[in-house]
Amino acid sequence: MCSFGQPRRTPKHASRAVQAVVKTPSTEKPKKAPGSESNFTGLPERKQDIPITSPTPPNKQMQEHLDLVRSNFQFVFKDIMDLDHFEDNIFFSDPISNFTFFRGYQFNVQFLRYFLAPIYEVHEVRQVGEQEILVKWSWTMNFWWNRFNPLRGLYDPRLCFSGLTVLGYSPKTGKWNKHIDAWDCLKNQQFPSLEAFAFTLRQLFQVAKPPNRYTPEFMLFKKYKDWEIRRYKPFLIAEVTVEEGGLEAADQALRSYLAGSNDRQQVIDRTTPLFRDSGGKASYMLPGNQVGEHAPAPDDEAVQVRAHPGGWYAAGICGGSPSETQVQREVRFIRACANQEGSRPLDDSWIFARYNEANWPKGPFRRSDILVPLDEASIDLWRGVDWDYVQQIVAQRV
């Protein structure tokens, strides 16, 4: 079964223009955020949808802190980084840094916010102690200063993480006195973690980079050492069956459609990646301004336009120009990782996503992803959390 599903058949008497199922205002601008990094959008509108759980009804002080975390943590404590909200002896620790005083903690947070521009996706907020709150998150850091790099086309690193944070506050003052992070990708969480430094450096020196084009929007749900879980938003695609001419012939047919070979002679912005699925289909996403309105009907009847439902995927990143044997090996690896984690593959289908042109760039600068669809019912935010470690943090007094 093709993981992108089967195209809807349009009745012969119907218009050749295809109506997308996805209902998004046509004025919405397409997003540019290529790569394995999440395309975080709409956070201010979504913050009230972040679930809060508590084993018992929280008291007034705890409820105020839960609400503050839900509304403010995703913005890296924007506008409250002062001693009115934090104890002077606040204890902060993550696998690569450690501070026991507010000024150090403040410098660390401000450095991340202004120099590396992290964007958080807060998944859930939970009370885990009398004065402790647990936050499950994923985030990406974009090196905004790299825009001035003349070699940005070849090197534009981004750091992606997922994990949890335990926040604690003083019952006497109500101020935060504890902030401890743990990453999903690590076995050793204690500072200084060589494993964490190696994981960070590995991302910093990742030179495989997709072109700066429109790309499907997804949320990074979990980031492990060698793979990740994503949730894609629905989007519109133009697809064609890969025939004897191979992938390049299918690619050319799709490019012709985007270049104006359609009933409106409309030129549609190029997107990335080129998807090739196990069902023998090749496709490109249509930009966001095509979603929710009638897309131009292709002149070539072999090209079909339809809505892709998005969904959950296990994903792995590979560089270079992998052979079919290497693709299959990577598919088996990603599938095994997902099964071991407990997130079940939906079926036997898979998708190969090629971000770059067929012959450029070369070698390690090329970027491709392997996507394996997952059964949504098997996705568990808290699976894999070391609860003994969490309770150890909760019991730690400052």
Structure, explained:
- The chain has 7 helices and 18 strands.
- It has 398 residues and is of the alpha+beta class.
- The chain has 2 domains: 1-35 and 209-380, Regulatory factor, effector binding domain (Multidrug-efflux Transporter 1 Regulator Bmrr, Chain A); 43-207, Nuclear Transport Factor 2, Chain: A, CATH 3.10.450.
- It has a 9-stranded antiparallel beta sheet. A 7-stranded mixed beta sheet has the order 2-5-6-7-8-3-4, sandwiched between helices.
- A hairpin with a 4-residue loop joins strand 5 and strand 6.
- It is elongated, with a radius of gyration of 23 Å.
- The termini are far apart.
Task: Note the topology.
Blueprint: E1 18-19, H1 43-46, E2 52-53, H2 60-72, E3 86-94, E4 97-99, H3 102-116, E5 118-127, E6 132-142, E7 158-169, E8 176-183, H4 194-204, E9 218-223, E10 228-232, E11 235-241, H5 246-258, E12 274-277, E13 281-285, E14 294-295, E15 304-308, E16 311-319, H6 324-341, E17 351-354, E18 367-373, H7 387-395
Parallel strand pairs: 2-5, 3-8
Antiparallel strand pairs: 1-14, 3-4, 5-6, 6-7, 7-8, 9-10, 10-16, 11-13, 11-15, 12-13, 12-17, 16-18, 17-18
